[in-house]
Design a protein that fits this description.
With 303 residues, this protein is an alpha/beta fold. Helices cover 40% and strands 18% of the residues. The chain has helices spanning 2-19, 56-69, 93-107, 120-130, 147-163, 169-172, 178-185, 195-198, 202-210, 280-283, 285-302, and strands spanning 20-26, 32-38, 42-47, 70-75, 112-118, 135-143, 245-250, 269-274. An 8-stranded mixed β-sheet has the order 1-2-4-3-5-6-7-8, sandwiched between helices. Helix 2 (56-69) links the parallel strand 3 and strand 4. The longest helix is centred in the N-terminal third of the chain and has 18 residues, at 2-19. It is globular and about 55 Å long.
Length: 303
């Protein structure tokens, strides 16, 4: 009996280590990406937003909910967080997609779910388009599928409202390129006012900011916001998705747009809205948890 007990303890320890494994995975171009696997169940790749925010704060703040339902694979995208920057500065969308596939194969998953947050919705759609057979379902948590629409229709109007008469002609001109209008606004946004774009309560923004160790945070990958291919409108593609989708949105999320959900048309979609901003895992955790419960049942019916 003692021998069996020792074996059971060893197996339990091995299982714990396996469910919370941190590692650097080397991509085919030599770039090493930080990956952490936590939880049990169906594997689910987390694609963070920003661009350039990293996966650390989602793991710390949302992991207690996500890991109840899935085996979460937290990935810091190339040039972001704890991952390395590519030596050749290759941040193309096709290279990012190749990263996701190389991580999947390195971890030994035949297929998985993909969960995007914020800008991660762009990556999720691009990945699905290229590798439909490797993805079992899609989860969009406060995601944009078109940066131009989210920034022009929601982010910019809210930012201009916040800074008031400091908004110059460039910021106010709808005929000027969206990214240039944003650059005109950024100098007037700071920790004291920027949070209003993301959440009705500053405390939630502060919690998210404090959950990342920025002394060890690589932000080189944030430059993808200046690359035209990431500004593609993926919304027309939603009609062609034949996998179960959870689309979760915040009714007070001005980073994406409270009404952005009206422009997505996934055929097999669970649409859930909450009276929150950009961070439902801390603003509306019960509603998010309930939505994930329903989505898991939806996946089982699909299979």
């Amino acid at each position: 009996m003692k021998v069996l007990r020792k074996i059971a303890i060893i197996m339990m320890l091995l299982s714990t280590l396996q469910s919370s494994a941190q590692q650097m995975i080397k991509m085919s171009d030599g770039t090493r990406l930080y990956v952490e696997v936590r939880g049990e169940g169906t594997p689910c790749l987390y694609l963070h937003g920003g661009p350039g925010s990293g996966s650390e704060w989602m793991q710390k703040l949302g992991g207690n909910i996500l890991e109840k339902h899935f085996k979460m694979i937290y990935l810091d995208q190339r040039g972001v967080g704890r991952s390395e920057s590519p030596r050749d500065s290759d941040y193309t969308l096709s290279r990012q997609i190749k990263d996701f596939e190389e991580v999947r194969k390195a971890l030994g998953f035949h297929s998985w779910l993909v969960l995007g947050h914020s800008f991660g919705g762009i990556l999720t759609m691009a990945y699905w388009e290229a590798h439909k057979d490797d993805i079992d379902g899609l989860i969009f948590m406060n995601c944009t599928l078109c940066m131009d629409a989210s920034f022009q229709e929601s982010w910019l109007p809210k930012a201009i409202e916040i800074i008031g008469n400091k908004a110059n002609k460039t910021a106010l001109d709808p005929n000027i390129k969206t990214i240039d209008r944003m650059m005109a606004v950024f100098p007037f946004l700071n920790n004291d006012n920027r949070w209003q774009i993301f959440t009705p309560q500053k405390k939630y923004n502060d919690i998210v900011d404090s959950a990342t160790d920025y002394s060890k945070h690589n932000s080189d990958g944030s430059k993808v916001i200046f690359m035209d291919e990431y500004w593609r409108d993926f919304r027309p593609l939603t009609k062609t998705v034949n996998k179960p989708v959870l689309f979760f949105y915040g009714k007070k999320d001005y980073a994406i747009g409270p009404k952005f959900y009206k422009s997505v048309h996934f055929p097999d979609m669970l649409l859930v809205g909450a009276d929150c901003g950009h961070f439902p895992f801390i603003e509306a955790p019960k509603i998010l948890d309930n939505a994930l419960n329903k989505y898991v049942k939806m996946l089982k019916r699909h299979n």
